Amino acid sequence: MTNESSLDIAVAGGGVAGIVAAYLLARRHRVTLYEKNSYVGGHTHTIEVDEGNESAACVDTGFIVFNDRTYPNFIRFIKQLGVSSLQSAMSFTYWDPGMGFTYNTTRPFADKKNLLRPSFWRLLFEIDRFNKTTRRWLAQNRLADMTLGQYLRQAGFSPALAKHYVTPVSAAIWSTGERDILDFPAQTFARFFENHGLLSFSGHPQWYTIQGGSHEYVKAFLKTFPGTVHTGCPVKKIARENGGVRLWTHEAEAVHDKVVIAAHANEALAMLTDPSDAEAKLLSLWQYAQNRVILHRDTSCLPPLQTAWGSWNYRQGAKKAVRGPATLTYYMNQLQQLACQHHYCVTLNPDYPIEPGHMIADLNYAHPMFDKDATATQGDLPGLNGVNNTWFCGSYFRYGFHEDAVMSAAAVGKEFGIEL
Length: 420
Known about the structure:
30% helix, 24% strand, 7-stranded mixed β-sheet, single chain, alpha/beta, FAD/NAD(P)-binding domain
């Protein structure tokens, strides 16, 4: 534990991990937050869209929802900030235009043709077997050292289950291509699905969204943060020297007592001028998938049958590359409970044209890829903290989500004797 008083601490990265680290450390220390983007928040990026009549729709494009079961640290954080939330409606839709096949997880027979499809009934029964078998193999510790693809083959599941359910749902959750999802460690996958109630047809957690858009918690943080914030200011280099750290941005250099690197693992390693063997070994194994994200009003990206629209809508492309990125559309009116005159969609990696007149924002986000080598580092990542006046945090410490970033930042705060 670090007990020095009134330290000068730099936080490199203004996503949720950096926000929470800065929020905690500023209770006792002088904190400077450096963020490469023009805004603080990282994947928390809300776009205010003019609806006319002096009203605006605040639409999230990255972080959107959280639940009451697996996000305890994030919920504690926003409660401390006094930020309100409201219930979200979660559902998943699979749509294959080439096959003329659509189903929604909460309304499986919204398309009445599914009632007469033997293949769909077989899929439902196999999903039930998949849930039961996965729970059993997880409890028996049979999934260790196995990828998701290997598990599906060894357990005897059909290619149809993988194509129409397991890989689309998983690719949607982790914003990763179908083939890369099959390389995902089976045990990590199963634990995540079990924790989120995805290995049963009932007992799912309640999902929530931030009232007014996820940027509301960022605004609340900035309003109370006593430190200094630099946006549009990427950290280029970090050198640990003379009992402290020297940090270079595109504008200047600064000296601090300590540094918390709250960036993607690959970016964190690139910042260090003198990485230790352990830092180089652990951080170099992480890769990130680049995802194009478009906010728009073109509902042609959703299934033709509106009653089948889900919160998450996965579109199976006829010519999708086996290692191509996942293509899905979030229906934001449903996810955020938006009361507005237009339909708002957020589409990841569209492999079809979106009407230019309906496009509002064209963005890019990077998501960690959880292959076997990367996840094998997670047990050792906390051991990097506190060495050479440097700490690390980010969603890659666990499953890649907001709660995981907050949890890792809270662990940094705890090393300084500060609890969330």
